């Protein structure tokens, strides 16, 4: 998938909402974790002094560099880093942001702890990621669907699970919201190159959901319903 051209990662409404929530200033130094195609870094770069954009994948960093140069952005530094083990001193950034990445992290507590560590006290901690509705059924079955669609998927955390993860960190929650989203089919599958067998299994899982869960996850031949969770917090 070409992340740089992804309608999800580059959605201007999402990016504008992020900026309105964070309220970045021209003195701020920001970290964009798992920058992918660079959309978050580029959006922040228009408002802050400096952005450090990190990704574990050199190909993604190369894409993000292309995207930033196309927009004549010159205040982003691109670095290959693993969020689970950042080569960055404590308390460096006014803003630490990550969009559509946490569901890939192999050790989420360690990754969030590293993001927290490099954030200055009083700094802004922003996350937008795939999510699932609270409840044992949706937390297990929708994650099964996500893994069938994308083999690199680790876990989409429900709001309930996010509350548990964030309790490990000394943060003040400023904003959380669960956002419902509908994706067109087959585009949602095509973006990840999901094979036909997996597509059929996904529909089998959707068909077998309880009636209560189906209310939360309406679907059809041409669309599927998903959720996202958005978090803005301040480091204590």
Element layout with pairings:
Blueprint: H1 12-22, E1 29-33, H2 39-45, E2 50-55, H3 58-70, E3 76-80, E4 93-99, H4 108-117, E5 119-131, H5 136-149, H6 159-167, E6 171-184, H7 187-190, H8 196-207, H9 211-216, E7 219-220, E8 223-235
Parallel strand pairs: 1-2, 1-4, 2-3, 4-5
Antiparallel strand pairs: 5-8, 6-8, 7-8
Protein described:
- With 236 residues, the protein is α/β, with parallel strands linked by helices.
- The protein has one domain: 3-Layer(aba) Sandwich (Rossmann fold).
- It has 9 helices and 8 strands.
- The protein has helices at residues 12-22, 39-45, 58-70, 108-117, 136-149, 159-167, 187-190, 196-207, 211-216, and strands at 29-33, 50-55, 76-80, 93-99, 119-131, 171-184, 219-220, 223-235.
- Strands 1, 2, 3, 4, 5, 6, 7 and 8 form an 8-stranded mixed sheet that branches.
- Strand 1 (29-33), helix 2 (39-45) and strand 2 form a beta-alpha-beta unit.
- Helix 5 packs antiparallel against helix 8 (196-207).
- The longest helix has 14 residues, at 136-149.
- Residues 1-6 have low confidence and may be disordered.
CATH level 3 topology: Rossmann fold
How many distinct domains? 1
Mean pLDDT: 95
What Rg is obtained from the alpha carbons, in whole angstroms?
Answer: 18 Å
CATH superfamily, by name, is Vaccinia Virus protein VP39
Strand portion: 25-35%
User: How many helices?
Assistant: 9
Largest sheet: 8 strands, mixed
| Low-confidence runs | 1-6
Using the coordinates above, name the CATH class: Alpha Beta
Any guess at the CATH architecture? 3-Layer(aba) Sandwich
Question: What class do helices, strands and sheet pairing give?
Answer: alpha/beta
Distance between the termini: 38 Å
Order of helices and strands: HEHEHEEHEHHEHHHEE
Helix fraction bin: 25-40%
Shape: globular
Strand runs, count? 8
